[in-house]
Write a structure and sequence with these properties.
The structure is a homodimer.
Chain A (H helix, E strand, L loop, with lengths): L5 E5 L5 H10 L5 E5 L11 H17 L4 E4 L2 H4 L6 E2 L2 E4 L2 H11 L4 E6 L1 H6 L1 H9 L4 E6 L3 H7 L5 H15 L5 E4 L8 H8 L4 E3 L1 H14 L14 E5 L4 H11 L6 E4 L4
Parallel strand pairs in A: 1-2, 1-3, 2-10, 3-5, 6-7, 6-8, 8-9, 10-11
Antiparallel strand pairs in A: 4-5
Helix pairs in contact in A: 1-10, 4-6, 4-10, 8-9
């Protein structure tokens, strides 16, 4: 067993949707969350830049003594695919999300929503086809979703229209499962469900990673916290912003962060 | 007279709306445009981070031998207010935009649209009040405008709704002049005009800076190109992206760039 925290990083606050699910599923584990808000968003950057920033974030978390790393950012996950780095286990969102989508899909027609970079990288399509060569993948980049989520326009006719614009063409392909390929997107789950209706399974990265960590605990690939450990959640960002701090609290609710701090990762 | 190029920088491609106006107004001047696309957007970053990145961009342009610098980015302009830096003249967008708005306004009720950081900095409000203490300023942050412009949804009902959401409350204040306080916003000028109607003067940063440079040529504060010089326009970005390269060409049209290059400014 191992009381050290799990490190979670994202380019911003979207990864908090993953942190929230993990903190609720593993109530004795502690978490150190790093939001690289000074350099967000990663979605519009080149593969090389995303890789470089991701390595800097991973090195920073390793220096803080984490026992595992969760890359709660789809753009970063598409450029950082190792399952281990310097002796520490790494979970990205691409493999767990793809595996969960395949386990839920009956007709093996799977949709993927993501940022421009994630869709362009083809990361989900490659992973889905690697796991199941009969799958059909239909992808859609949704550059407006992150700013809508960050604006807090969650129950909003404008958001419904934007979701319709991006998602409706996917509906015509006959998909039965839809991967929310950006950690911000669970914030818009209610608007997305208005377009997908009840028949399409939505795949949330947080739940997919939690399933995988639970399996790794059983397989003894992951050392859980000790029985007497109590959870501590720390949120680090590379840039200060009141708007993001208040949005972070809303997203995490009912999980409580013990500390919010600005850090320089260089 | 001085044949060296004018350096123009922005966090991304929005500043190309300024470059376009300047290249058309001064057809013998050459331009070196730097888009810090690896670190965009600046609008969501802290004042300290924006200042640090801006200084790095200015130093880079100075090393390339520019004769003047235009900060075609409102977030950067709000943190970099010097009119001279290391012996070279610096034009930001805050002062020219404010001066032009005051010259156009009859009732001295002026609206400002901008990113969250520009509005929060109060840069336009401070400058407007410094220039004319009787002015009333009404500000509105519009975080969706940049992604809408970058998505190319220019003539689009969704854009019209978002513009209405942000701009309609300003209309009720009785403003007669509206500063487009982000260099991306001229791309949405047609949608903004649908809400403001014909009675409100829109202030575009590019035109405001061009006016100021023209005045500085007359006052001999700015050395223009030689009569035989022919224009050369180079576009540098800190990150490669096909989407941005094609959008850049659209925005600049009919101005033609002679070179597109990715550079490392460190």
């Amino acid at each position: 067993m191992d009381s050290r925290p799990i490190g979670v990083f994202d380019s911003g606050i979207g990864g908090l949707t993953v942190l929230k699910v993990l903190a609720q599923r593993f109530p004795r584990e502690s978490f150190l969350y790093l939001g690289d808000t000074a350099r967000l968003p990663y979605g519009s950057k080149s593969p090389q830049t995303i890789r470089r920033y991701s390595e800097q974030n991973v090195h920073y978390l390793l220096r803080q003594g984490v026992k595992a790393i969760v890359i709660a950012c789809n753009s970063a996950s598409s450029q950082f695919t190792e399952s281990e780095f310097e002796g520490v286990g790494v979970y990205n969102v691409i493999h767990p999300g793809s595996a969960r989508a395949l386990s839920l899909s009956k007709n093996k027609k799977i949709g993927v929503l993501g940022t421009r970079a994630t869709i362009k990288s083809g990361a989900y399509a490659h992973e889905l086809i690697r796991l199941e060569d009969q799958v059909e993948v239909f992808s859609q980049a949704c550059p407006l979703f992150v700013p809508l989520a960050e604006e807090g326009w969650v129950e909003d006719p404008i958001t419904n229209l934007v979701v319709f614009r991006y998602v409706q063409p996917l509906m015509k392909t006959g998909i039965d499962t839809l991967i929310l390929g950006c950690t911000h997107y669970p914030i818009l789950k209610s608007a997305i469900t208005k377009v997908t209706g009840g028949q399409i399974e939505l795949v949330d990265s947080g739940e997919a990673i939690a399933d995988l960590i639970a399996q790794d605990i059983v397989r003894q690939h992951f050392k859980p916290a000790r029985p007497g450990d109590s959870q501590r959640v720390e949120i680090l960002t590379t840039d200060a912003s009141d708007h993001f701090a208040s949005l972070a609290k809303q997203i995490l609710e009912p999980v409580q962060a013990h500390d919010f701090r600005v850090v320089d990762i260089h």
